[in-house]
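Weekly sync notes, structure subgroup
Attendees: PM, AL, DS (notes)

Item 1: joint prediction request from the bench team. They want all two components modeled as one assembly rather than separately. Inputs as received:
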Amino acid sequence: DQQVKQNSPSLSVQEGRISILNCDYTNSMFDYFLWYKKYPAEGPTFLISISSIKDKNEDGRFTVFLNKSAKHLSLHIVPSQPGDSAVYFCAASGKTGANNLFFGTGTRLTVIP
Amino acid sequence: ETGVTQTPRHLVMGMTNKKSLKCEQHLGHNAMYWYKQSAKKPLELMFVYNFKEQTENNSVPSRFSPECPNSSHLFLHLHTLQPEDSALYLCASSQDLAAGGNEQYFGPGTRLTVT
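Output from the run, pasted for the record:
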């Protein structure tokens, strides 16, 4: 059973607008969450992370929000740029087996110029 | 070379063949990982090595055999694979196995097709 879920396989957004990618998890033991970005023919690259002791982490145009009670996190990209078009993976890890990252299936973001 | 490299990038093999995937990291990391990504499925962790020692084997069939001769190199030896083993195999590395903050750096992957 998947412990990390990304229910939207794809998302299209106009350039300059906000992109919101969502992720849900089921394991309350997860305490660290990451977003990875993947271009075709490349491996995933780390984008931004958040610890469970926080509810928001911002890095430039990228902000991750964590709602622990809802077991939900989201990635906001604003303003969206065509170069942001990629597949975005949400991942989570816990204190035990911290080396084990659980990934979602990814959301393909297309930013339309 | 920088980051994490993987060779070959594409591999087609028959079910009776033996082949190996190679991964090399140039980041000075101590932990290395093999993942499998099948179509429309999340990345699945296969093996973890920390300081050359295997710390995790996620119930992977014995037809997949990892080898870590040093902290910079990781191999995945393949033999008598099945067509359902066709997938993208990704290698990753991280500084260590610290709890939380486990930012892993990925290679580009090897696209494996078993015929």
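Discussion: The interface with chain A takes residues 4, 6, 31, 33, 40-43, 45, 48, 50, 55-56, 58, 90, 92, 94, 97-109 of chain B (CB under 8 Å).
Action: AL to compare against the crosslinking data before next sync.
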